Amino acid sequence: MFAVTGITGNVGGEVARNLLAANRPVRAIVRDIRKAQSWAARGCDAVTADINDTRALTSAFKGTEGVFVLVPPNFDPLPNFPEARAIASALGSALEAARPDRVVYLSTIGAQATQSNLLTQHTIIEQKLGDLSVPITFLRPAWFMENSSWDVGPARKDGVIRSFLQPLDKPVPMVATADIGRVAAELLQEKWTGRRVVELEGPHRVTPNEIAATFADLFGRSVRMEAVPRGTWESLFKTQGTKNPTPRIQMLDGFNEGWIEFENGESGSRKGKVELRTVLQEFIERERES
Hints:
The protein is an alpha/beta fold and 290 residues long. Helices cover 40% and strands 17% of the residues. α4 (82-98) links the parallel β4 and β5 (103-106).
């Protein structure tokens, strides 16, 4: 049995689908059991557990061959990341008590960075889980290609996309969630000892300008990328409702300045199969169907 958290989302769902395709039994861990109905219909064992509930997590993880851990994203954490510290404590206690055969934790590119930023939440959790006696893999994916889903409307309507990734011709490590889910499922079915890190990006690095050019080709119209001035970020994010925009700004600085990078660089990362064009085409088709 393989326990999968975050199964109702893109990555967790991909992990589960890949495991089921390999004829592996799956336990769907959800906060609301009603959201697991489609997975139960596919033969999954559905259980409820909140990511902060040590007792429920322990029960959900017990008796499993492997556990895939995905924590809910928090784009507006409190200073010093108390939310991530609480999650780390709950997860660590639950995994140590349940003792599954192995664990794959979905972390992030740059988890090893020493400069504080939004991704430091994963650094905190990695440090806690890295002390477990259970074999664990930290899967560190690049910037999600799916972040460009927000660009479909502006590209189609206005032909202008606003980018926080800068300079616009700087290649950025990106990866599709389909590749993340596939690789995570593969890792869960492997055997290893101790702690290991797997860094994952797409077939090649992508510039913001390339995203615009790909949209232009798919829409058959002119599309250009426009850099959002760095000095406007704080006020913009606050206008959008963010109370503590500093970690997000620091993360963007890390990508733009290059200190958020894979620990072993581009040459040391595993490469996915899914191209950016495929991901953007899927977004456009979904919009047309909706």
